[in-house]
Amino acid sequence: ETYRFVDELTERLALNLHIYRARHSPAWQEARYGKLWEQGLDGIERYNHLNKVEPMQRALRDLEAAAWISGLRRQQAKSRQQLDVLLWRNSRCKIHPIIDWTDRDVYRYLSQHGLPYHPLWEQGYVSIGDVHTTRRLVDGMSPEETRFFGLKRECGLHEHV
To answer: What is the per-residue pLDDT for 139?
Structure first.
């Protein structure tokens, strides 16, 4: 669903995307390391580094980006409540332009501009990560628990990049 959604938005909004992926395929990674996402917190950290952190670091370096923009919001998690709008890390500026938006603000913006929610939203996914470590929100769960089996909230991008 996510890949189709990316293609749909790329065409609809005439986006000029530079797609970066892990250096090794999922099959290669699984053959070499096993199912990292099933190996507790250390396995999840390694999986995230290989598939998210390293490709993002490489993209920012290759593209010589002086800044990058993130859609993090304080309302999404306790770990995000103290974030500033601007953050300097690794000689690069990270910008959080919607840090103070609520779910209602997001809904209004998408509605006013005719933009769709991610298709998995309708199926109960309040946070979209990867196929292995993202779960639907069910009764009794906090949104933080929908990612990484509740062991952690962040994938590493917002901790290390």
So the answer is: 92
